[in-house]
Amino acid sequence: MFPQRHDEVNVKAKDEISNGQQQADRKAPRKHAGKTSSLRSVAVEAQRSRAFVKSRGRTRFIDPDAETKTVTAYCAAETYSISAAARLVKAQGYELDPFQTGLYPQVIHVQTSDRPSEVKDYQQGDIFIFPSGTVVTWNVREREALKLVNQILPSAAEGSHLDLLETEDLDYLEDPSKETSEVVGDTIVLGTKVKQQEPPPDTLHDSSSSKPNNDTDQRHEVDTVLAKIAFSSGLARSTKLAVLETLLSNYQHSTRQIPTMLASNKTSALQSRGHRLFTRSFILRKTGELLSIRAQLNLYSELTDSMPDIFWDSRHELGLGEYYDQVGRALDVGVRIKVLNEKIGFAQEIASVLREQLSEKHGLRLEWAIIALIAVEVVLEFYRHWTEGKGRDDPASTEALLRRYLLTVAKEERPASHS
């Protein structure tokens, strides 16, 4: 009896040990499965990032099937008064600088709300207002952006030109697997991955260190906004340049016949028919227009600067200057500025020819005026000599009477002297 019970106990113990071992074996793979799933998610994100950007040889481009959003720039004025613009957008219910970037008043940043109103729409996005008279919107519907540009901001504009409103847009997408951003083709790839910072040594075994770091998240949001401002500055620069290109194109259109007329010497014929093309007011007006375009390009804006002043104090690791340059290279801003200056130089040569012609006409008029005065003086002198000669020959003239009187007196004095 006892040996049989002992055998039963041994069998039960073996069964419990084997069951415990099986449970341990089952639990262990679950632990490794969690690590595998996290690594798999990272791999999926990396694969998704690589799926965004395609390559063909040395050419990189964005997958046409990738879901993108739109960033649009509107240039409707020469400059914006930032203080006045801030009052206007604040009156519409926008919150100024919601992430406390510290860049106000160099740039105004507001976010659209999810709650619709007279101006706002359902879609949430970012709006940046620059002193250069440009508004850049990220993921904002056109209706809301045009409402802001056409109806709210003109009161803060100097040199408003809504009739010459220029718009440019780029596509952008957010890549949660990248910490940095870049421009691929005409698409901005915005890296939204939070930069992982190593915790202090004393918190490595602290269970509270696994909680989200609010400071890190807030700093990441600020860095993302700064990246958007850098890309927006580059796009605003291109849009401002497009306005100057349009102004110069209109200028060239109004003066395109001048070289042909100068070559064919038809200016006098046109003026005789009443066209009055090369008047003094016309030449001065065209010279002023050209100088205004050249000043806006080279003096009164940051178009030719290598990097805007607002980025000089930013952290170097953010690479904001590089983002600004990438947009400029993608939109050929440097080449366009060079071509625009060359066109302005050619237009200035035409203006110089017109000024020389105006000066020549003025000098010619002065010469003819001097010739006319000399001719009048000659005529008057000739008339004086003619009247004097005629007076000598006229017996009834005063000079002739005086001469006869003197001769008579002289004859009378001669006999008296002889006696």
UniProtKB/TrEMBL annotation:
Residues 1-17 have a biased composition (Basic and acidic residues). Residues 1-42, 192-219 are annotated as: Disordered. Residues 127-341 form the DUF155 domain. It holds the Pfam family DUF155. One of its GO terms (biological process) is positive regulation of mitochondrial translation. InterPro entries: DUF155, RMD1/Sad1-interacting. One of its GO terms (cellular component) is mitochondrion. Belongs to the RMD1/sif2 family. This is DUF155 domain-containing protein. It comes from Neocucurbitaria cava.
